[in-house]
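ARCHIVE CARD
SHELF: 3
SLOT: left
DATA:
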Amino acid sequence: MNLTTLKTLSFILVLAFSNNLSAQKLDQILSRGEVHGNFQLDMQYYQEDSLIGASEVPEDVLMNAFANINYINGNFSAGFRYESYLNPLLGYPTKYKGNGIGYRYASFTKEKMSVTVGNYYEQFGNGLIFRTYEARGLGYDNVMDGIRINYKITEGLNVKGIIGKQRLYFEYGEGILRGIDGELMINDFLGGALKDSKTKVTLGGSFISKFQADQSSQYNLPENVGAYSGRFDIRRGKVSFNGEYAKKINDPSADNNFIYKEGEAFFAQTTYSTKGFGLTLSAKGVDNMSFRSDRNASLIDLQINYLPALTRQHAYNLLATLYPYATQPNGEVAFQGEMVKKFKKGSFLGGKYGTSILLNYSTVYNIDSTALPAGDTTQMGYTSNLFAVGDEKYYEEINIEITKKFSKKVKAIFTYSNMVFNQAVIQGKPAVDYPTVYANIGVIDVTYKFKKKHAIRAEFQGLFTKQDQQDWATVLLEYTFSPHWFVAVMDQYNYGNKYKEKKIHYYFASVGYVKGGNRIALGYGKQRAGIFCIGGVCRNVPAASGLTLSITSSF
C-alpha cells in the first residue's frame, strides 16, 4: 500500500466514523481512554559561507517536523506519526521530502495474546539478527509494516512472531521478512524451589528470513536468506552474564561484493554491581553480517539487524563528532571494559560531597582472515576465524571521567581520552592521504550555582593530534535561569590546522525557553562538516551557516 492510498483510506475511515457517531458519543468514547503525544520541529535558515564550505540552499529555509498521537484504552492502543519534510534539513536523506504518515498502528491484548497490526518496532535478543528502530538524528527508520503476535504459552515461556516489510522513507522495501523468537525463563517455567532461587536463568532463540526475488543476470542469488541465533542470560545477586551467537546463511549483496560466504556474530557481556561500584566487560565478533531486506540498498537503508559499537558513546562536542566509531559489519572483533567507582562523602577521595570516577577502555580490530585466490570457484571470498583477532587496529580509546562536587555551588566533570582512529577503514578514506589518527582529548565541565535558580556552566575542550586536521579547541558558556530560560554561546576553533585558511572559528549562540511540556530554542552560527553517529551508525553532516529554530512539545 503506497502513501497516497493510505492517506485516502485513513481520511475515508475518519469520515465514516464521524458520520455514524454524534459528537457527544465520540467524546464519550474518547473520554474512556487517554490520548498522549509529542511534537517536534527543526527548521534552519541557510546562508552561503565559502569559508567553511557551506553552499547555497535554493529554498533558503529547510524543515523537519513530526507529531506522534497515541490513544490508549485498557488493553487497546492505536496511533500514528505525521511527518513533514519541506524540504529535509541538510545531511538528511533527500528521499525524505513532502508530508505523510510515516507510522501507524493498532494493538490489543486478549488474555495471553497481544496482536499488533500496521507499524511496529521489534528486537530479537541483542539484535544480532533482527532489530527495527528509529534514529531520528540520523534520519533512519526501518520500522516494520505488517503483523506481530506475542503469546505467553505458559508461565515462563513466551513466543513472538513477525511478518512484514521495512520502511524505506515514505515507501516500503522490496523484501519480505518472517521471523519467530522464543524466550524461556527457566525458574518460572519449572517452578517449585527454582522459582525462589537466587540464580535466574533465561534462554532464548530466534529465526528470521527474508525473501527477495532474484532479478540478476550475473549471479545466481538465493531468494530466501535465513539467520538464526541462540542466547542466554544468567543472574545471581550482584553478578550477571549474558551472551548470544548468531549465524546467517550465504547472502551475496552489494555490501560484501556478492560473495557466498556465511556470516556469523557473537556478543558477550558480564556485569558486577554493588553500592558505589560497577564493572562491565563486553566482547563482540562480527564476520560478514551485513543483513538487509534489499541486497542492493544503500549503506544506511533497510538494515535487518543491529550490530552495536562496543565503544563509549560521548556527549561532548570534540569527543562525539570528530572521530566517532562506526561498526564494520563485514568484519571486526571488539572489546570494552567500564568501571564506575563512587567514593563516599567524608572519605579521603570523596571529600565533603563525594567523588565518582568512570574508567572506560575499548578496542576494535579486524578479524583474522585470508583472501581466497581470484580464480577460486567457491565464490566465498575469504576464510576467517571469528574468534581470532587480526593485526590491524581499527579503534582504541582509554577514557577517564571524574565527577566531583566541590561545594554546594560548584560541581565539575574532568574527562581525558586517548584515542586511536583508523580513518581509512572507519570512514572509507584513502590511507595514503588519511593516516591513522592518534589523539589526546581533554574536557573540563564546571557548573556554578550562584543563586537558587541561576547557574552558569562552562566547557573547555581540547583535542591534540598531529594527523588529519590537527588541534582543535572548543569553549562553551551556558547560563540557566530555571525553570524557563537558558542562553549559550560556543566557539569551536581549528587553531592547529597547518593550512592558515582552515584555521576557522565556528561560532554558535542559542537561547531557549521551557515551560511545562513545551521547549523553544533559537540559534545562530556556523556548523562544522563532519560525521554524526548514534550507536555505531553514522551519517555525514555538511557544513552549514545560518539561523536554527527548534520546537518540542508533549502532552
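SLOT: right
DATA:
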Amino acid sequence: MKKDDFKVHPAVLDLKSDMEKGKVTRREFIRYSSLLGLSAAAAASMAGFPWSGAAWSASVKRGGKLKIAAPVHKVTHPAQFSWIAPSNQLRQIAEYLTYTDGDNVTHPYLLENWTASDDLKTWTLNLRKGVKFNNGDSFTADDVVFTMNQWLDESVGSSMLGMIGDYIDQTGIEKVSDHQVKLHLKRAEIGIPEHLFHYPALVLNHRTFEGDFIKAPHGTGPYLLESYREGEQCVIKRRKDYWKTGADGKNLPYLDETVFIDMGTEMAPMIAAIQSGDIDIIDFSDISATEAYQALKDDKNVNVSPSTTNQTRVLRMRVDLKPWTDNRVRTALKLCQHREKILALAYFGQGVQGQDVHVSPKHPEYCPIDTPKYNPEKAKQLLKEAGYPNGVNVDLAVGSGWKEIVRYAEILKEDAAPAGFKINIKTMPNSQYWEKWTEVALGITTWAHRPIGTMVLNLGYTADEDGKPAAWNETRWVDKEFSELLSRANGTLDIDKRRKIFCKLEKIQQDRGSIGNAFWINVWTITRKRVQGVKAHPSLYLKLDDAWVNA
C-alpha cells in the first residue's frame, strides 16, 4: 500500500467539527479518530495536544531479571482465555494486531495501519512487514486469517466468537496479499481495532499451532518460553531477534529473563515478598489488590500507580434456572444491595457506585441513569408476588481469592435477610470458580476493563443467530429489543446518537436484566522502585518489551 493511498475517513472531519463545538472532548476525538485509522500522533495534532513518539528519554539499562507474583494457570489455546493472568505471561511471547494503551487510545502493533470504508463495513488491515516468529517463520496474512478463523470456530469456544461473531463470519475474512487482509462485515462496526486487542486475541503461527500453545510456543513477541509449569512458575527469556528496537537503538527487550511465580491467592505472603525484594511486581489481574493497596500505598520502596477503570464485580443470575427465571426475584435481590455500604466496606471507597447495568460512567457511550436505592421492603413484596411469601433459600458462589467479592457477598447476605433472602455463601478457590463461572445459578464474577460499552455488552449479553447465548453470556439472558438496539449502537459512530441508544440499553438492563453491580473499581499497578517502564493499565495488562531494572 502506497502512502498516498491512505485516506482519512470522512467521519474524522465530523468528529473534529463536534470537538470544536464542544460535543466531544479532545480525548474522545483522539480515541475515535484512532479507531478510524488516523495515527495517534496525527489525531493529537488535530486536537491541539503535543505528542512525543519517544517511549523513554532516560538512559535504560540492559540485562537483569524480573520476578512477578502471578497465578500460573493451565494453558492450551490462547483464544479460550477467560482470565488475564495467562495472557500477561503469553503476551510476552505472542502479540496482538493492535494495542490499546492506558488512555484507551488504540495503536497499530502487528498492523502497520488500517482503514475503514465510509460505511464501516469494510476494514483493510495492513500488516507490518519484516516481522518473524521466534522459530524463524515470517509473519504473514495467512497467520491473521488462521487466527481469526480460530476465533470464529465454534468448536474452539472462544469469547471472541461472542464479541465479533454477529458482524463477521469466516467467509468475510479475505487475504488480499501476504501483508494485507480485508474484513467484510455483515453490519457496521466502529470497535474493530479495540476488539483486536481483546486478551484472547493473540496472533498464532498457522504453520505450527495445533491447539496447545505451550507445546509450540511460537509467537512474534520479545521473549521465548523457557518453561511453563502449571501452579508453579512460567519462565521467559530474552529473544535476540525481536522486531522492535529500544531507546538505545538495539533490539528489545532490555531484560534477560522474567519469572512468573505462582504464590497462590493469599495476599500476605505476596506483600511480604515485595517488601523484602523477593519479587518485583504483583500481577493483580485475577486476584484482589485491596489488601496490597492498604499495606503498600505509603511504602517508600514501592510504586503504587492507580488507574480508574470500567472494571466491576457482577452479581449474576442464571435466568434459565429457578428462582432467577422470574424477573421479580432478580429485581428483589438487586434492591438488597446497599451500594454505598458495599463500596465503603468491600473496597475502601476506591471506586464509584454501580447501577445494575454493565456500562460504566467512564465508558464514552454512558447515559446517566439513576442509582437504585437499597429497599428491602419493596424486595420483600416482589418475592411475595413471585410466589415466595416466606422468602427463598439461594446459594451464592464466590472465589475466595477476591477479598472484596467475599465481603460483597457477606454484606449482601446480611442486608438481603430482611427481604426474605436466605443466602448460603459458597466460597471456593478462584481457579475452581473459573471452572464453573458460567454454570452456577448465582455468583459474583469479576469482569475486566473494556474501553467501550458495546464491547462488554457484546461479550456478555448476546446470542448467535440461532438464539444460543454467547460463550461468555454467563446468565443466559437474551432480550430481543436489547439485542436489536445493541446492533444499532455497534454501527453508530456519532457519539450523541450512540449515547441515546445506550439510554435505552441501560434502562432495559436495569429493569429486566440478569445482573446487579454495586460498584466499579479503581486498580493499582504495584512494583518495586527498581522496576522501570511498566506502565499502569486499566485492564492490568503487563507489557514488558521495554521494561528494565535498576541494579
